[in-house]
Structures are given as structure tokens and as C-alpha cells.
Amino acid sequence: MAKVYESITELVGRTPLLEVVNYEKEHGLEAKLLVKLEYYNPNQSVKDRIALSMIEEAEKSGKLKPGYTIIEATSGNTGIGLAAIAAAKGYKFRVYIQDNVSKERFQVLKAFGAEVIKLSENPVVMETLESTGGDFVAAVKKLKEVILAEETDVFFTDQLTNPANPGAHEATTGPEIWEDTEGKVDILVANVGTGGTVSGTGKYLKAKNPDIKVVAIQPGPKSLPSEADPNPEDITGVHPFDGIPSERIPKTMDVNIYDEKFEVETFEAYQAAREVAKSDGILIGTSSGAAIYAATQVAKRPENKGKTIVAILPDTGLRYLTTNLFNVE
């Protein structure tokens, strides 16, 4: 019998694992490098998982009711996932988005009918960022407090504190990797933004096999603002979690889950994303390039010969066509 779906909510998850065999050969890797292609989600990113999870958990608890407006602050992909699922379920959606994300993100959000507000246009956010020295976690917390105090019939998903964020990955991403590899996975490599992906996936996999190593990625120093370079090209959606005050780490990040911190610079992420597009025909974004780069370096270590490494690739390169990622001759 034919299978016909009735909502995009039914299409989230079950993304494929691909061994990048040509890339492995080009780099002389003796470990198996598998990439989880999250752009196979209906809105082309890993954030579809948490968008669905946060909305449906809120519906079950009664925090989100028909007629409500869903609200989030994001660097892009979470907002897109929420906008699409909100549209499918009949909710309005408002997003406060970081100014420096790609033009494609703004266009996609508006296409789904979202109300889009740049963070720089909100005085509460800007005042908090200035008073805290750029603490995004504090800025979102203050924004949420003000919105909930002033408005009714709204639900702020708050991906930085919502347990449905890592919960989505513990319930879906981790089991998918375990099942598709038949339990033959040695190392997980994942970026840290809110920390939900690495925390939830890592928790599930370590529960199945405590010997699995988790490598968590954060930006390198050249990819972070400094006095010498206050506005560097960053890795969109990837944020520091090590070496910063604990209050600046999202509650969705389990700092005890990872075995190794790995720093990647933006130019290294660009290089890996460009290489794998040409070697294996997968078009990925900057954060995915960071995961590929980190996994490659880990695979080159002698002790990892013959092991299976899984790298989670968060999104599609189609969201970066107007950025410097693919703006090359």
C-alpha cells in the first residue's frame, strides 16, 4: 500500500548516514568516516528535530495552545524549523534573529510567514549584551522575561534551556546512529551551539556503549571576536562552551558528556566543506564543514585506525550561497 504523509511533522528524522569514501581516499584516512546528513530533514537542518520536539512537548503540557504565538531567538536554523512546523500546525511565529546570518535565512523565515526581528532592533537585547559583555544567554533570558511579562497567548520555546532540545536527540538522533551502524560506532563528532545535539546524542550512545568517545566542536580563537578583529567570519551556530563562565553556557549543554574539545577555525570549516562537495557531491554549510574537518583530524590519529567515526552535519550549503563559503572562483 502506498504511504502518503499528511504533515511535514511526519518527515522529521531518519536522516541517512553516508560514508564519504572518495574524501577518505583523498585524505588517506584509515578510519571509516560516516556523516549524518541532517539536510534530509524537511527544512534541511538538524534543528527540525528540536523544533518539533519543543512544540509538541509544549502542546502536551498545555503551555502552547491554539491561537498562541511561538517565539524564539536564534542564529537561524532553529527559527526556520520552528517557522515551518508552526505554519503546518497553524500557529503564528515570531523570531529574534542574529544580524549576521546569511540572507537566505531571512528569506526562508519570511517565506514561512514568520515575523522576523533583528536582535539589534530590540533594545532589551542590546542593553543586556552591552552590560554583560556580549552574554547571549543572558540577553535571551532577559528578552524572554520581558516578553512573558508584557504579552499573553505566547510561548517562548527557549532552545537554550528547554530540555526537549537535548531530549529530541536522545530520542531520535542517537538511536538512529546506533541502529544504522548496528552499534559499530567508536567516535561521535558534533558541533556545539546550544549543546543539545552533542548532549542528547552523546547521552544515548554512551548509555549503549560507555567506551564511545564524544568530540565536541567549538570555534577557534581566530573565529571569535577580539580587539584585533571585532567582527571575524564566524561559524554560524557554533559557540564556545569551554573556557567561558559557566553562566554563559546554555543549560542544554551537558559539560560532562564530551571526552574531547576540538577547536575549528572558519577557514578550516570552509576548506572541508568545499572539498567534500567536490569529492562526494554533498553540499553542506559552514558548521557541517567544521564537523568534517574535526572528524578528519581525529581520523588521522594512529590510535583511531580501523575505527568508525560519525560526524553530524547540521545543514545544507544552500543556506550559504551568498556567503564567502562558496563565493570562490
How would you describe what is shown here?
This protein has 329 residues and is an alpha/beta fold. 39% of the residues lie in helices and 16% in strands. It is built from ten helices and ten strands. A six-stranded mixed beta sheet has the order 1-2-10-7-8-9. Helix 8 links the parallel strand 7 (187-191) and strand 8. Helix 1 crosses helix 9 (266-280), helix 2 crosses helix 7 (164-180) and helix 5 runs antiparallel to helix 6. The protein is globular and about 60 Å long.
Largest sheet: 6 strands, mixed
- Please tell me what the overall shape is: globular
- Give the averaged pLDDT, no decimals: 95
Structural class: alpha/beta
Please report which band the strand proportion falls in: under 5%, 5-15%, 15-25%, 25-35%, 35-45% or over 45%: 15-25%
String of helices and strands: EHEHEHEHEHHEHEHEEHHE
Give the helix level as a range of percent: 25-40%
Fold topology:
Layout lengths: L16 E3 L1 H7 L4 E6 L9 H15 L7 E6 L2 H13 L2 E6 L5 H9 L3 E4 L4 H10 L3 H15 L3 E3 L7 H17 L6 E5 L4 H13 L4 E7 L40 E5 L1 H15 L5 H14 L8 E6 L16
Parallel strand pairs: 2-10, 3-4, 3-6, 4-5, 7-8, 7-10, 8-9
Antiparallel strand pairs: 1-2
Provide a quick synopsis of the model.
This protein is 39% helix and 16% strand.
